Amino acid sequence: xxxxxxxxxxxxxxxxxxxxxxxxxxxxxxxxxxxxxxxxxxxxxxxxxxxxxxxxxxxxxxxxxxxxxxxxxxxxxxxxxxxxxxxxxxxxxxxxxxxxxxxxxxxxxxxxxxxxxxxxxxxxxxxxxxxxxxxxxxxxxxxxxxxxxxxxxxxxxxxxxxxxxxxxxxxxxxxxxxxxxxxxxxxxxxxxxxxxxxxxxxxxxxxxxxxxxxxxxxxxxxxxxxxxxxxxxxxxxxxxxxxxxxxxxxxxxxxxxxxxxxxxxxxxxxxxxxxxxxxxxxxxxxxxxxxxxxxxxxxxxxxxxxx
Length: 307
Fold this sequence. Notes:
The chain has 307 residues and is mainly beta. The chain is built from 2 helices and 14 strands; from the N terminus they run H-E-E-E-E-E-E-E-E-E-E-E-E-H-E-E. The strands form 2 sheets. A 12-stranded antiparallel barrel has the order 2-3-4-14-13-5-7-8-9-10-11-12. It has a two-stranded antiparallel ribbon with strand order 1-6.
């Protein structure tokens, strides 16, 4: 790769801070440290829980839009904003990329990237040209939420990850490792409402691109039975060119759950299961802030059915 192309890649990859995802969550940046939640690894009147079936906590959200309140954990920050998530049969779209009509992500990068005269991916314009954008492709797809987890046996998966610039040009190949642990049960108060006995899952996703980038996304997620995610605490951290650290942390709280669509046994169970398992295949990531405290402005994740 030529020097000029490499420098463009570095710019594009002040981006690589994610997914991821939609990716979220562990180095201690001043003012943006997340406190580990207190959970109960069992029932008050029952035995130790050795496994949990997450399918009861991952309802069918296909066709639904939910809104979350997002706020920075930085002690000097008071900002709070609404952040949208939309679920589709092919995956989900978030933030500024929610509602975008794009077609399959695979048409925008690598061997299929748009040529002269063809329409590129419609990235939204950011104020003053700030931010960055990139694509990711995981092989094999990286499971976001398995259907079963145990506090005694964390689940780890490794995948090859290929990164692409905003115009589809190939950047770097790396490895992605995701570890999930069921931490127990806990009540959580969100927006004046108490969600009892939520399943709390901790995940840590690390993406390494050799000398160029290392990104760690850590998150704690509260899953309410029959409702799904009601709170998520995430932290991005890592380094650029080994010597330039970055870190940011955010909390997402459910603001509007809408009405859950009823799941019919006569429907397409393959699609429903695909939504539940939620394995990341391809992603488009838009950042409206980069170093030293990156933030995701929008995300599209295409999923595939995994066991």
